[in-house]
Amino acid sequence: MYRHLLFFMLAVLFGCVGPNGAPDTRPRVIFDTDMDSDIDDVGALAMLHNLHKQNRISLLGVIVTSDDPFAPTCASALNRHYGHGHLPIGFPENQTRLANHSRYTRQLSEEYPHPLTSWQTCPSATETYRRLLATSPDNAVIIITVGHLSSLQNLLQSEPDSISPLDGKSLVKNKVQKWYCMGGQFPEGKEANFYRPDPASTFYCLENWEKEVVFSGWETGQDIITGDAELKKRLPADHPVYRGYELYNRFAGRASWDQTAVLLLVPQSMDFFEFEDNGKCIVNADGSNYWKWGEKSNHRFLKIKDGVEKSAISEVITDLMTGNSM
């Protein structure tokens, strides 16, 4: 009996079966966030936790690609609030200059409990990425990035180690299904995640990524407003997401750039969006980008369908941020 129980627990842990014993077909998600300057990262992580609690995804871990020392502890506080305090968090290795420049990361870290004592006790982003991928089934993981791509580049450039005999590119090729990237501006422009602070990582990742990638550009989320009075009304005042938006701009509303990338996990997103895949995203040395029209490739960018009201997308995102089922 105990042996069967052990096998079942291991099967759940490694994604073979779900919590109810049936085959686990939920998308397995790694979230890579620059949780510091803007507040939409908090909204996006709230969506992921609520989708996880609803058994619609399996949230594997969080990569915090930031130079704010309170960013990983802020993510840890959010994880704990949702009952996932054990969730792995990775933080970029070998950073020499850290500074608290966020309106909310230090405050949430100090006001809410969390198991991560400091950024210094956080495993490296590369190690965390590799471990989460190595223990996943083949072609099962969706990576969502909503910040700059330094950690993703480090993963791709990583060498075989005790975690996996595969190098980073091979690990991604075997384990990743697709990549949702909040970044760029389409059909052309210059967007912060692509050019600040590490445009070289954007160029490298796009040149070396072989699986499908969907770009949710700046223009997609710019006019989809959330985090306003509706969020304030629907969350209790002691909720860390409430507190984050209160600290950021006192519920004045904010563009939903990061949330649009997370929304792609939900089938209902196709009521609102369509994809352009005739061509490829080209990144210049300064991080600016343009869409080079041509044959279909592994690149696609997101477009809002004609006739869709952006307020309808805002409503669905707010539902997911506050934990309402759809």
Q: How confident overall, as mean pLDDT?
A: 94
Beta-strand content estimate:
15-25%
How widely separated are the two ends?
A: 39 Å
Low-confidence stretches: 1-11
Structural class: alpha/beta
Helix content: 25-40%
- Please report the total strand number as a whole number: 11
Give the biggest sheet: 9 strands, mixed
Rg over C-alpha atoms, rounded to the nearest angstrom: 19 Å
User: Helical region count?
Assistant: 14
Question: H/E series, N to C?
Answer: HEHEHEHHEHHEEHHEHEHHEHEEH
Shape: globular
Spell out the key features of this protein.
nine-stranded mixed beta sheet, alpha/beta, two-stranded antiparallel sheet, 326 residues, single chain, disordered N terminus, 14 helices, 11 strands
What does this structure look like?
With 326 residues, this protein is of the alpha/beta class. It is 38% helix and 20% strand. It contains 14 helices and eleven strands. The longest helix has 14 residues, at 40-53. The radius of gyration is 19 Å and the shape is globular.
Summarize the structure.
With 326 residues, the protein is α/β, with parallel strands linked by helices. The protein is built from 14 helices and 11 strands. The protein has helices at 2-13, 40-53, 71-81, 105-111, 125-134, 150-156, 168-175, 192-195, 199-208, 218-221, 229-234, 240-249, 257-263, 310-322, and strands spanning 28-33, 58-64, 89-90, 141-145, 176-182, 188-189, 212-216, 225-226, 254-255, 273-283, 289-304.
How are the SSEs placed, and which strands pair?
Elements: H1 2-13, E1 28-33, H2 40-53, E2 58-64, H3 71-81, E3 89-90, H4 105-111, H5 125-134, E4 141-145, H6 150-156, H7 168-175, E5 176-182, E6 188-189, H8 192-195, H9 199-208, E7 212-216, H10 218-221, E8 225-226, H11 229-234, H12 240-249, E9 254-255, H13 257-263, E10 273-283, E11 289-304, H14 310-322
Parallel strand pairs: 1-2, 1-4, 2-3, 4-5, 5-7, 7-11
Antiparallel strand pairs: 6-11, 8-9, 10-11
